[in-house]
Structures are given as C-alpha cells and as structure tokens.
Amino acid sequence: MDVKFKNLTEAESFKKLVSFPTPDIKNILSAERISKCNINAGIGLDYNYSAKPVDEKLLKLFQQLSDEQQSVNKYKEILTGSIMNPGEKRMVLHHYTRGSHNIDLKEGVSDKINLYKEQLERFSEFAEKVHSGIIKGSTGAKIDTAVQIGIGGSDLGPRALYLALKGFLQVNGKKPFINCEFISNVDPDDASDVMSRINPETTLFIVVSKSGTTQETLTNTALVKNLIRSKSKSIDIAKHMIAVTGKGSPMENPTEFSNSFYIDDFIGGRYSSTSAVGGVILSLAFGSEIFKKLLEGAHASDKIALEQDILKNPPLLDALLSIYDRNILKTTTEAILPYSQALSRFPAHLQQLIMESNGKSVNLKGDAIKYETCPAIFGEPGTNGQHSFYQMLHQGTDIVPLKFIGFKESQQLYDIDFEGSTCQQKLNANLSAQITAFAVGQKDNNPNKNFPGGRTSDLLIGKRLLPETLGSLLAHFENRTMFQGFLWNINSFDQEGVQLGKKLANKVLSGKQEDPVLDAFSALFK
Amino acid sequence: MDVKFKNLTEAESFKKLVSFPTPDIKNILSAERISKCNINAGIGLDYNYSAKPVDEKLLKLFQQLSDEQQSVNKYKEILTGSIMNPGEKRMVLHHYTRGSHNIDLKEGVSDKINLYKEQLERFSEFAEKVHSGIIKGSTGAKIDTAVQIGIGGSDLGPRALYLALKGFLQVNGKKPFINCEFISNVDPDDASDVMSRINPETTLFIVVSKSGTTQETLTNTALVKNLIRSKSKSIDIAKHMIAVTGKGSPMENPTEFSNSFYIDDFIGGRYSSTSAVGGVILSLAFGSEIFKKLLEGAHASDKIALEQDILKNPPLLDALLSIYDRNILKTTTEAILPYSQALSRFPAHLQQLIMESNGKSVNLKGDAIKYETCPAIFGEPGTNGQHSFYQMLHQGTDIVPLKFIGFKESQQLYDIDFEGSTCQQKLNANLSAQITAFAVGQKDNNPNKNFPGGRTSDLLIGKRLLPETLGSLLAHFENRTMFQGFLWNINSFDQEGVQLGKKLANKVLSGKQEDPVLDAFSALFK
Q1: Could you tell me which of A42, A208, A180 has the C-alpha nearest to residue A119?
Q2: B243-259 as b/e, with b when 16 or more CB fall inside 10 Å?
Q3: Among residues 429-488 of chain A, which lie with CB inside 8 Å of chain B?
Q4: Rounded to whole angstroms, what are the CA distances from A392 to A188, A398, B356, B497?
Q5: What is the overall mean pLDDT for chain A?
Q6: Which end of chain B is more exposed for a tag (fewer CB within 10 A), N or C?
Q7: Helix or strand or coil: residue B472?
Q8: Which residues of B touch A442 (CB under 8 A)?
Q9: What is the largest CA-CA distance in chain A?
Q10: Do A423 and B522 touch (CB under 8 A)?
Q11: Can you give the pLDDT at residue A173?
Q12: Tell me, what's the pLDDT at A174?
C-alpha cells in the first residue's frame, strides 16, 4: 500500500488551520456567493456550502489537508481491495454493490464483486416472481407483505430507504407492489405489534443477519414463528422465510429458509443498504428497476468522490467542513434537517452510519488519539423541527452545525394553492428563511428577542426525491463518513465499542455472573 | 411574589460545587448503592440515580442549591397562579389539566381550572358518543379513524403518547377503539401519505392550534379538505372536522367545525399533552377511562414534585444532576434511551419539551447569561440504539450523559422462551449490561478494545408501561424541565427563538422581500 497514515493534529495543514482566522458568515454571505458555492453531488442533487464559514484561503488549506491525508488515494485503496479495515483485517467493498470502477483490483476482489452482481440478479428475479405470483405463500395466497427482521444496519438503512420511496409510487394512486414492515427490537412488543397488523399467509419474512448469530434477530424470528403457528396451523413456515446472510453462516439452512441471498464480511452493516440487505426488501416493495435506479444514483456519487479537487468532490468538501467545525470551532453536535417528510427516518440511519463509524478514540494503528472525533448526530424533518428543538438552535448557548436537505418539488406531486402559495412553496420558504435566520440573525435591544446569527449550515438540494437522487444522497453521506475517517486517521469500518455490552448481557442471561454491580442492576428488573 | 431570581453562577452553593471533587463512579458503585439510590417517582415508577457521580456531600450541596434557587417555592408560585412566564406575561397552568392542589389560588385561576375540567368532561362524553355510534360520519358510517392535524406541541406529545399506549390494549387481541394518524409537516407528502391510507367517510379530523393561525396546520387542513372532496362528493366535510383551539380564535367557527374543545394561553404547547390537545385524540383512541388513568399518573408525579427534600423529589434531583453534568462536568448532549418499543417517539417529544423550554441565553429578567443552558437531546429505543450510535457513547471522545428508561414487564405481555430466557429478560439483561459497561468499563491493553468507563447514567424503572405509569413518566420530565429552568434562572415557558424564521418565511411568501441573501436562497428552489 503506498498511502501513509498520520494523525489529524500532526498534519502541517491542520496546524496552519488552528491559527487561521475564521471569516464571519454575516460578512461574507451574498447572493453571488450563494449561487457560486453550489456544486453537483450526484443525480439531481447539488451541494451548497455558501453558509459555511470558509473563504478561498481556508479552502486552499482544506485542499492541502485533504492531499496531506491522502483522502482520495485512500478511497482508491478501498476500491482496489486493500485491507482498509485493519481492526477486523478486512477489505471494504460496499461500493461494488452499485457499480464497477476503472481501477486495478487486488487478487480475489473480482470474485467478491461477482458475488454482489450475482445476488443482485438473483433477488431481482425473485422479486419479479413474487410480483407475478409465480412464488406464492404456502397456502396458495398471493404475497402482499414483507417483514424484515434485522437490527442496526440490517434495519435502519433499509427502513429509511423504504419510507423515502414509499410515497414515490403513490403518485396518481399507484402503490408499492408489496407493503413492508420491520421488526428490530428484542422488546417483544415490537414483534407483537407488527404481527397484529399482518396476515402470515400473504407475508414473506426476510431474516437479515450477516453472521447468522445476532441475538435480537434470532429471538425475533423464533417469536414470529410462534405467533404464526398460533394464528394459522396450515402454514408451512419455512416457505414464508427467506434469509439474507453470509455463506456458511448458521442461518444458511434450507429447512428453515426457502431461499437465501448472500452478503459477505467486506460489506459493513451500516454500509449495506445497497447490498442484498436493502436490495431484497426494496426490490420486493418497488420492483428491481427502482432499486437499480437507486444503485445508479449511489454509483454516480461514488464516482464524484474520486475527484482530487475538493471543489468538485462534495462528500470530501463536506467532510473537511465538518472537521473544521469539530476540531477548530470545537462544536460537539450536528443536526441533520431534511425538509422532506419522506426522509423522516433518514437522520436515524445517518446517526448509525456516522456515529458507529467515527465514534472512536484510537487511530488506525490502534493508538489512542487526543483530538475530538465524531460529534453527536440528531435530526427530525423540517418544518416539524422548527416547532420543536429549533428554539435551542437559534438562541441556545451552544452552536450546532446544521445540515439541511431540501427538494424543489414534492415527491408525490400532489399540492394545493392556499393563501397565495403551494405547500411545497411554503416548505421551501421556511427552509430558505431558516438558513438565512441562522446565518445572519437579527439584532434586537431586548436580549430575549435577539438572534445572534453566525450559526452556519450547508444544504443538499435536489430536484425531486427520485430513487436515483436518494441513491446519490445515501452515498454522499457514506463517502463523507469515509473521508472523515481518513482525515481523523481512524478506522470507520469496525465497531469494537459494541462488544462489552453484548458480553455482559450474555453474562446476565447465563445466570453465572459473579459481578455484584451487574447483579444488582439486573435485580432491579425482577 | 415572595421568590427571588438569581443566576445559577451567582448562587453560593453553585460556587462551592465548582471546586468540589467529583467522585469516580467506578469507585463508588456497589450493590448496596444501587438498591439505596432508588426512589419513588410516581405510579409504578422509580428513579434510580446510583450510576450518577454523586456522594452524600455533593447531594447536600445540591439540596442547598435547590433551596437557594427556591425551586419548590417557585413551583408553588406556578401552582398558585403567579405570572411565571414573564416573557409572555402569562400564568403557567398545565398542572391543573390533571388534578387540583391544596394551595391558595390567585384571582381568576379557579375559572381557568374549571375550564380544563369542563373540557375534560366534554371530550370524554364526545369520545363515548363516537364509540357508541351516537356520533357518526356525515354519510352514516361509523367512525373508525381519527387524524390529528397539528404541529409541535399539538403533534409530538399526543403522537408519542398514542404510540406508547397503542399496544397496551392489544393484549389478548383487543384493539384501540379508533385508529389514529397524525399530519404535521407542511410538506404536502405528509398529508398525501396519510390520506392514501384512510377512508374520509369513517374519519374524524381533529385540527389543533391554540392561536388558530398556525401556518402548517391551516395549510394541511385546506389540503385535507381538497383531498376529501376529490375522493367523495357526498361527504359533509364540516361534520368530520373538530377543533381544539383557544376560545375566540379564528378557528372557532361552527360552519367549519362540528365541535370545538378549548385550551387557553396558560397551557404551553409542549406542556399540553394532558389538556384537550392530547385528551381528545387519546380519549377517542382508548376511551376516556384510560386517558384519566394517564392524568392520575401525571398528577401523582406533580405532587411528588412538591417535596422540598431532593431525595424524595425525583424530577428535582434529576434536574440538579443534569445541571451538574452540564455546568460542572461541561457535557453538551444528553441521550434518552427507552428500553421499550412503545416509547419509540417519546425521545422526540422530550427533545421538544426540553430544548424548546430551556434552549435560552437570557434570564428571567431578560438579561443575557454567560453559562451553558440546555444541551442537545437525542435518543432511540434500546436495543436498537446499541446496534447504532452506542459505539460513540462507549468509545467516542466526548462523554454523553445517558438517561435509561426500562420496565420489568413487557407492555403486551406476549413473550416466548428462547435459548433459556424470554425476550423481556433479554431486553433487560441488555439494559443492565449497558448501565454497567458504561459506568465501569473494561481495561484492555489493545486501545481499540479498551472501555474507559466513567460514563454515567440514571434510570427510570417501571413495573409495566400502563397508562398511569406513562402519565408519571411524562410529568416527571415536564417537572424536571421546569426545575432546570428555575436552577438556570431562565423562562422555560416562552419560545422567542422560533419567531425570526416565521417572519422571514412570510417575507419570502409575500414576494416582497428586498433581502438579497434570502432572495438568493429561495431562488435555489425555483
């Protein structure tokens, strides 16, 4: 590998950034800047960074930092199949679930890529057979529902994308091919709730676990089977169960699952929405053509991420801006604010993507680092958030960097004119107003009515939330997260921090712990 | 008024706290402490603060701080009807939506209290008439659906409570009387989506806006009416519309609404879940008996909040602990983590409640203050969060105070034994394990597998998520938020920070802005 790994604070360009003045957004924001700081970020998607506190001099230093940390070269190492997840000694291949790149591949990588392609074709065909009725339920009924049983990456991404596209087909009264539900939590109320809404005879259950050993997912599968049996004796349960798992996992079992689709260790859970993990359910819901459009959009964004010039590479520029916020301006949180109801659960997916990837305190060599990494991520759709936590964003004592997402057109295209403007115009008037209000503020002699401004934001702006635009948006954030990891010099692809809790939970369940504290906490629940 | 207002940093006891040593949770946590630091917080609800970094000496200082800031006396001023929302020159009377207190009332307060009682009886009766079929849809069909159109406090609280109780009735296959939906966002896709699922002939629309002028709510009402007309010409729309609003508001219009229920200016939106704002829809959904159980639980918590002794007053102690985290330990965020799928949207409600109430930078006199107030609040249900952002909570570079919520029993009572334990046992084993792992950590020579510990949490622990327990939980957080405000010396009941955005949005919509920046941002959406 010809890339070098260096802590952020050791980079010469970062040291320069520390003492470099930050421009006041109130002074630099102008109509000209707003139209100039707008770059293509994928299919039907632009990235506008005009309301971030950077000028040309800072951007030059950003470019130096990106070059010094070899951001794009490290991405190329990922694409070539180097072991870029050293903690788990794994390659990082999720980009190949959505397209190929003109790059030399390390030995064995082609086989993996072929597996992903093959699975895409297999589940596309499977979805078609379900839609056409060739594949039916075990009692002969047509399948009208799919329930995904999975947690974390097997839940948040697919669920967010399903909700994001569900309305897309509703134009002119069309509906998704298949209605989807999700069961994730080991709380039995989650499965009970979903099962009370569905008819098992017309339902396919998609059990998703790469390792085939995820406690929550296996437990929920057992609970679901029990509930099916209690509802209907005549069902052949295995015919209603399909698996998405690793080849050779304990879940690869044809007596339990009528069909299996495969992923492998080189696609991390939180990066797996474009693999079979998201692909099976989304193809069942909307048809494989729409899922392939989503892949197309993601691939377009992956190609843009190859640009060395940060002003042509939005995920990289976005990552640099976020590191400037976090490590120079010392912000601790970040709000993701989509002005689109369809993206209601997109912030929850990004919360996992970003916080699980970059909530680390050790560098790629495994040494402790001494600078801040991932902030806390939260968000809800606008305009809802305006009537909720925006008070704190406008007038609170901490500055929260804001990431807005908006679209020119509504997704479902249905709209009305009310008091001189449409709903979509009102939605976007609010979005423009908020960006301006946060950045510019408004002086008032009454401190309670004073808006200090200087609260900066950026904006991902789409034409309409089409499948390909959603794909670009998803990959933008995946690649931004990857670039953040390169800049911070951390491994964005492992998650050692989840292990201790699992271990202690198993200790409790085994009944064999001899840990008085753990014992006393569990006693509270008896 | 015989209470005095003092900035937090001017309190003598706070000055002592600043230089006082913080005990290391790893040293003080013990089985004895866990069972000792557990106090009653309402009906079927305890508060356990054993994993917070406080010892007896600190608790004594906390008591002094509470006394010095006159926390409980200020709460009594609220109950007596003093103008405790000086920014808007209003009383704060939401506690009276759920019970009365043995306290002298200021002039005119009885009338307000009588209004709340009267409305409770009116909407209880209304719900019964809908359930029994005395009140029907305009085409003679039985009502089976209610859609609440509201935003912010008219949406988040009622929605969170509806989801929290929906499963409660599902035991043994029972279902809520009426299925509920919510429309909030001015994004037209939100209303389109809901309307695609419902039959207007069997639906009641509850339009909720105290002022009767909320842009999003009026726009959505117009859009909904349009969609009803396009679906069914025979419907008499007004017969399907009811209002929850202030007396004399523009929405008090019998030609538009077949029935109106009232709130007033002394119940803030984010504190209105126990008024008609939450009461109409929850009584329709579950029957007024269940709603009254919720009120009973909230009232029990309101009474506990009157205790001067912080060790008998969980919302007050909780507030003091949060101020210790924020202003002494300098944390910036707070995660709310319910181990209960039914509470999936409870964190979103608390995000509004806390951040809109206390995200302020001016004191009650209107002077700017120089210390930190509300942190950013986020959260998702466990165990889902464990597979998402917990990585950052365990091994990230910032400490995030954690607030866990758990229940001994599942809400719906359906469970199975799988591999030696039930789902509920697994859920709670995970919760106990997480509290322990965060607090105690685990040393490892490999920094990537090292858990530093010292990440403190507290726990609200219930027997089962019954309506009365939910009521106590809700009021616990309302009263904790109020006490935080008293300690910080800020007004938790106004929200000036939402005004500028509204004003600028209207400027955009009027087309008359002469603000080049605002103009350029809005041009991006054309």
Answers
A1: A208
A2: bbbbeebebeeeebbbb
A3: 429-437, 439-442, 446-449, 451, 459, 461
A4: 36, 8, 6, 7
A5: 96
A6: C
A7: helix
A8: 500
A9: 74
A10: no
A11: 72
A12: 79
Q: Which residues of A touch B429 (CB under 8 A)?
A: 505-506, 508-509, 522
Q: Do A472 and A41 contact (CB within 8 A), yes or no?
A: yes
Residue B386, token pair as written in the block? 């464990």
Residue type, B97: T
Alpha helices (H) in B91-148, listed in sequence order: 109-132
The residue type found at B521 is: F
A424 sits in which H/E element:
helix A423-440
Alpha-carbon distance of A346 to B295, in angstroms, equals 34
Exposure on the CB side of residue B498, measured as CA atoms within 13 A: 19
pLDDT the model gives residue B329:
98
The alpha carbon of B273 is separated from its chain's Cα centroid by a whole number of angstroms, namely 8
The CA distance from A359 to B339, in Å, is 22
CA distance A432 to A466: 22
Give the per-residue pLDDT at B512: 78
Contact B489, B69 (CB under 8 A): yes
- Read off the pLDDT of each residue in A207-229 and give the average, rounded to a whole number: 96
d(CA A81, CA A87): 15
User: How far is B352 from B287, CA to CA, in rounded Å?
Assistant: 27
In this structure, the number of other CB atoms found within 10 A of the CB of residue A330 comes to 11
Tokens of B452: 């530093």
A185: three-class secondary structure by DSSP:
coil
AA identity, residue B312: K
Q: Kindly report the nearest CA distance between residue B86 and chain A, in angstroms.
A: 11
DSSP collapsed to 3 states, A372-423: CCCCEEECCCCCHHHHCCHHHHHHCCCCCCEEEEEECCCCCCCCCEECCEEH
Query: How far, CA to CA in Å, does A200 sit from each of A234, A258, B100?
Result: 11, 15, 49
Q: At what angle do helices B346-358 and B467-488 cross, to 10 degrees?
A: 20
Compute the half-sphere exposure of residue A66: CA atoms within 13 Å on the CB side of its CA: 31
Cis amide linkage into residue B383, ω under 30° from 0: yes
pLDDT in tens, A316-333: 999 999 999 999 999 999
- The tokens for A252 are 């690869």
ipTM: 0.97
- Going by their DSSP bridges, the two strands B241-246 and B259-263 should be labelled as parallel
Distances from the Cα of A97 to the Cα of A85, A495, B504, angstroms = 18, 21, 44
As a whole number of angstroms, the distance between CA A488 and CA A102 comes to: 27
SS3 B514: coil
Residue with tokens 């010892």, as numbered in its chain: B55
In the predicted structure, residue A1 carries a pLDDT above the cut 60: no
Establish whether B216 is a catalytic residue.
no
Contact (Cβ atoms closer than 8 angstroms) between residue B352 and residue B272: no
A447 close to B366: Cβ distance less than 8 angstroms = yes
pLDDT of B169: 84
Considering the entire predicted model, what is its pTM? 0.97
Name the DSSP class of A21: P
> Taking 60 as the threshold, does the pLDDT of residue B1 lie above it?
no
- The Cα–Cα gap between B83 and B85 comes to 6
Helix H or strand E encompassing A244: strand A241-246
Per-residue pLDDT band at A4 (split at 50, 70, 90)? very high
Task: Give the SS3 label for residue A47.
Answer: strand
Residues 384-413 of A with CB under 8 A from B: 384, 386-398, 400, 406, 408, 410-412
Q: What percent of chain B has pLDDT over 90?
A: 96
**Cα–Cα distance, A442 to A434 (Å, whole number):** 12
Question: For B470-499, what is each residue's pLDDT tens digit?
Answer: 999 999 999 999 999 999 999 999 999 999
Model confidence over B410-456: pLDDT tens digits?
Answer: 999 999 999 999 999 999 999 999 999 999 999 999 999 999 999 99
